[in-house]
């Protein structure tokens, strides 16, 4: 990664867990990046909230494909930032979420990517999302959307300087 990236925190699960939390995020960077490498203990729909806020302040526009077809969708008045694409999965999946100007006093733009490994029939997706709050982000709660993250799931939070 670029030298402007600084690891803030990282966790690897030793057992199945429903939620991963990054708390007390300092306002030391211009942007932050969340990286999640996971597999579910069942079909998961990974998503996250910011500042423990599950109110309907989130929205998204998504594009995804699987090699045979592509689709798009939009959602408004959601209760989270979505990471999952299509119908969720238990296959190994890699997600990123870039949260721009996270410490500023404007709405928070979030760009997410998803890559699902299905041994030749995987899926990829990208979503432009918005959190309509002007509060600085100090906490991120990631959850599996109904099922636990499996043991071995890794979540890392990076700070980005002068992006």
Q: Would you write up a description of this structure?
A:
The chain is built from no helices and twelve strands. The mean pLDDT is 91. The chain has strands spanning 5-12, 19-22, 31-38, 47-50, 58-65, 70-78, 81-82, 93-100, 108-116, 123-131, 140-143, 154-160. It has a single domain, classed as Jelly Rolls (Sandwich), CATH 2.60.120. The chain is globular, with a radius of gyration of 15 Å.
What's a quick, concise take on this entry?
This protein has 163 residues and is mainly beta. The chain is built from no helices and 12 strands. Helix content is 0%, strand content 49%.
For the CA atoms, what is the radius of gyration?
15 Å
Structural class: mainly beta
Approximately how much helix is present in the residues?
A: under 10%
Distance between the termini: 13 Å
Q: Care to count the β-strands?
A: 12
How many domains make up the coordinates?
A: 1
Task: Give the CA-based shape.
Answer: globular
CATH architecture group name: Sandwich
Query: What is the CATH level 1 assignment?
Result: Mainly Beta
